[in-house]
Amino acid sequence: xxxxxxxxxxxxxxxxxxxxxxxxxxxxxxxxxxxxxxxxxxxxxxxxxxxxxxxxxxxxxxxxxxxxxxxxxxxxxxxxxxxxxxxxxxxxxxxxxxxxxxxxxxxxxxxxxxxxxxxxxxxxxxxxxxxxxxxxxxxxxxxxxxxxxxxxxxxxxxxxxxxxxxxxxxxxxxxxxxxxxxxxxxxxxxxxxxxxxxxxxxxxxxxxxxxxxxxxxxxxxxxxxxxxxxxxxxxxxxxxxxxxxxxxxxxxxxxxxxxxxxxxxxxxxxxxxxxxxxxxxxxxxxxxxxxxxxxxxxxxxxxxxxxxxxxxxxxxxxxxxxxxxxxxxxxxxxxxxxxxxxxxxxxxxxxxxxxxxxxxxxxxxxxxxxxxxxxxxxxxxxxxxxxxxxxxxxxxxxxxxxxxxxxxxxxxxxxxxxxxxxxxxxxxxxxxxxxxx
Length: 437
Fold this sequence. Notes:
This protein is α/β, with parallel strands linked by helices. The protein has 16 helices and 14 strands.
C-alpha cells in the first residue's frame, strides 16, 4: 500500500507522525512525506523520504496576534462548549481557522499534483494540515488526521467550531473536486484519556513514541543514563519521596547522604534535585520564568534547560531523554512536551501563552499531575518580573514537595503506557483503505 503523509511544519507537527510512518515501512508499505521545502531536511533526518511541494510564505504562516496571547477569560472546556464563547473569542478562532486555510491553499496545488501522480491509497495529515483532507478528497481515498497531544480535537475549519466549513475551505475543496463536508475518516490521538476532552470525532488512541530526528541507536543523555541507578523517589519508582523542606526554609534542595530515612521509611536519595525547563519560542522564556528558575537554583535545585530556555548554554539533549532524571518540568504546555513528561511520570508546571497550551495546562491540573498558569497572569500582576518569578518558584517547589503530584504523574504514565502502539494503528489505517489493499 502507498501512504502519503503531509504536514506544513516540522517539530511538534512532524514528530507524532514518524512512529506510524516507520511502522508502515516495517510492515512492507510505501511511504512518502509531502512537505513545504523548508521542512524537507527535517523529514530526511527521520529516515523518511520527503517530497517538496513548494515554499510557504512567512506572511501565511504567522499566527494571528489574538492566538499568540489570547486576552480575557476563556471557559476551561471551550472546544466542547462553543456557545459559551463571546463574539470576540469566536473572532480569534475564526482568524486561526482562516490562517490554516491560507496554509492549505499554499500547499494544495503541489500536494494534489504529487498525489495524482503517485496515487496513494491513504493520506495521513497532521491536525492543522487541511490540504491533506483536500488531497484525499480529490483522489477519493481515506484521510487520517494525526493529533499532536492536544486535549481537544479542534475543528477550526468549521464556523463556530461545529457549523459548516469556513467559506475559504469550502471553496478550496470544490476547486479540487472534493466534497466540502468531507472530514478525516479517523483521528489518531496520542493524548492520554484522562487529559482528553470529549469529541464526536472518531478517535483511535495511539501511544506517544518520542522521536528527536536522530537514529534510534543514539547514546542516551547523561540524565537518562542515571535512571538505571535511580533510587526510590525517582519517576521510575513511584511511592517514595524525599523531604525537600518548605519554600523559604534555609538550606539547599539536596537530599542528605547520611543514612537518614525519608517520609514513609524509604532511603533518601543523594545528589541535587533536578528539574527541567523547556521552551519553544525563539525569544526564550518570559522574565518571570527566568526569575523563577534563578530562585530555584539559589535553593540548590539543578535546572536542566532545553530548547530556547537554554539561552546559549550547551544543549541538555532531547526533552524525552532528559526528563527521566528530573523531578518536574516547567514549560509552555505544548502537546509534545506534555506527552513526553506524561510518559516519564514527571509532574508539570505549565505557563501557557496560547489557547491550546492553556487547554493542556487546565487538564493536567485537573488530573492532579501538575499546575497551570496563563502567561497573561504574570503580566497582569505587574509587580515586576522578580516578584512574579518568586511566586512561580513557589509553585515549582510545591510540585517537588507534595507527593500527590508525583503520584498523579505516575498514574498518568501508566495510562499513557497502556495505550495501543503504532503497530495497532497500522492495522486500523489499512482497514480504512479497504479489503483490496
